[in-house]
């Protein structure tokens, strides 16, 4: 198995996803509709600014309108929510993305909850999470959806497989666990309080790393033949998985950089087009 | 360990929970408020009728008002939702319980979703599920909450323990998994598509059976010293766990009948009082 390790070429997945959106955007254009994503950036965190810019540029290249709202660091939760509510009622805006994280003094959860469910293309509301957990059609969180899109693209089987998810954040670990469960995987949710994490990872057919610690997942933790999906993005463009050490044991593995990230952006674009079609 | 197996005397847990409600109900009475639970039963399923009756009787014994609405088998989803909406706006009703299951032709999920979140004392709405998964204060599903109440009562440690949940229903397996995760257990969600279920159960420090198959969990699957919580209720009052075979290996185990059930009812009563206090 180790001789056949597939490096998951996520750029290919992202390119194919974006390619598939073009004709849908053209059909909307014939109706006079331009899909529109509004992004909100609070404060001056440079990596957040980079992410938002990348998302805006990706929109532009595809013919999706993007509105970039930049708010000062010291804005209050109420003021942020007021901005979100303006976008909620603006019929020309189809999707709203509030870049995570916001400054500490803001109630991020309250701000996320203010996003109208029909425009929650980033999948951050609790209602969106639950609809996703119960298998309804709505917008799942983009990174979890990207992870599943990559596995589908490479026909990595999920049904009956043991997936071990490391990390339990509301926009990554929790939703990806529910999505894998919905695809009939047996899912183990691990986190900072997990005892014997290595032993748990050793049992996994599918490893999803979403823990936020650089090179945390070690090569000898990986069961030979497992698929390894690295959703970590740490300072210096380093993933959560020690890629070099893991890649020879894994049957398939995503690199970082140019890993899950590009597919996450493609998923966000897809959701924005979905939202525009629903409101058309 | 096996010499010290604790039979979890759930009736004691339920009695203590109900005892603790009495003074709260008295305080509400001084304000002229009687907590009120409305139960809705659709059709003539005899075990459903029994459950609803038990819940109503439990209310009565404690001084909680209960309104029992019985609807004919052939009612439509829309008619059922109209009944729920009447209760949503009735200020004298604090909690609404729609007895599961409803007849096949009814969209049960749509009916559950119609229940106003502030009155969802049975914890069946998707929003309630998500708030619970994210650790907000709201009403978790009653059976999962009962399972945690039993473990708390007997001081069964959850943090860092490996909990294996068998079953993934929206009102049992999924919410109990999220609640155990929130209590810092490592949680594995198993179901009908799980391969090698026995091996997974053998790894568990805590086993939660919510699968709906009589005597399904076998004695030799249980790791010596594990805690076994049986949320199954199958025809003939038989649990999901082969109690006789499991009890000598488990460090703690809930029997069926008189198992998780009575604590589930006590939890429902507690939620109804909580709801009345919030609206007071």
Automatic annotation (TrEMBL), chains A, B:
InterPro entries named in the record: Aminoacid_DH-like_N_sf, NAD(P)-bd_dom_sf, THF_DH/CycHdrlase, THF_DH/CycHdrlase_cat_dom, THF_DH/CycHdrlase_NAD-bd_dom
Binding partners and assembly: Homodimer.
Gene3D superfamilies: Leucine Dehydrogenase, chain A, domain 1, NAD(P)-binding Rossmann-like Domain
Domain Tetrahydrofolate dehydrogenase/cyclohydrolase catalytic: 9-122
Keywords, comma-separated and alphabetical: Amino-acid biosynthesis, Histidine biosynthesis, Hydrolase, Methionine biosynthesis, Multifunctional enzyme, NADP, One-carbon metabolism, Oxidoreductase, Purine biosynthesis
Source taxon at top rank: Bacteria
Alphabetized Pfam families for the sequence: THF_DHG_CYH, THF_DHG_CYH_C
Family recorded in the similarity comment: Belongs to the tetrahydrofolate dehydrogenase/cyclohydrolase family.
Reactions this protein catalyses: (6R)-5,10-methenyltetrahydrofolate + H2O = (6R)-10-formyltetrahydrofolate + H(+); (6R)-5,10-methylene-5,6,7,8-tetrahydrofolate + NADP(+) = (6R)-5,10-methenyltetrahydrofolate + NADPH
EC number: 1.5.1.5, 3.5.4.9
Gene Ontology biological process terms from the UniProt entry: L-histidine biosynthetic process; methionine biosynthetic process; purine nucleotide biosynthetic process; tetrahydrofolate interconversion
Entry protein name: Bifunctional protein FolD
Function: Catalyzes the oxidation of 5,10-methylenetetrahydrofolate to 5,10-methenyltetrahydrofolate and then the hydrolysis of 5,10-methenyltetrahydrofolate to 10-formyltetrahydrofolate.
A GO term from the CC aspect: cytosol
């Amino acid at each position: 198995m180790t001789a056949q390790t597939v490096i998951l070429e996520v750029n290919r997945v992202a390119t194919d996803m974006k390619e598939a959106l073009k004709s849908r955007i053209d059909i909307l254009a014939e109706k006079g509709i331009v899909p529109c994503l509004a992004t909100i950036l609070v404060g001056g965190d440079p990596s957040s600014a980079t992410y938002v810019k990348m998302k805006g540029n990706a929109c532009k290249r595809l013919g999706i309108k993007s509105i970039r709202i930049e708010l000062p660091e010291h804005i209050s939760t109420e003021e942020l929510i007021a901005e979100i509510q303006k976008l909620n009622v603006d019929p020309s805006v189809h999707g709203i993305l509030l870049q995570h994280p916001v400054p500490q003094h803001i109630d991020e959860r309250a701000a996320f909850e203010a996003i109208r469910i029909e425009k929650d293309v980033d999948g951050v509301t609790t209602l969106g999470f639950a609809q996703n957990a119960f298998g309804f059609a709505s917008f799942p969180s983009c990174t979890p959806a990207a992870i599943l899109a990559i596995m589908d693209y490479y026909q990595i089987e999920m049904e009956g497989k043991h997936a071990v998810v490391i990390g339990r954040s509301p926009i990554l670990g929790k939703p990806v666990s529910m999505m894998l469960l919905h695809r009939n995987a047996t899912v183990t949710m691990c986190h900072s309080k997990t005892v014997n994490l290595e032993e748990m990872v050793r049992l996994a057919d599918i490893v999803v790393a979403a823990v936020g610690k650089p090179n945390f997942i070690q090569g000898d933790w990986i069961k030979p033949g497992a698929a390894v999906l690295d959703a970590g993005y740490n300072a210096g463009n380093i993933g959560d998985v020690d890629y070099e050490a893991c890649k020879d044991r894994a049957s398939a593995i995503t690199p970082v950089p140019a890993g899950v990230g590009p597919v996450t952006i493609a998923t966000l674009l897809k959701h924005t087009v979905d939202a525009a079609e629903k409101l058309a």
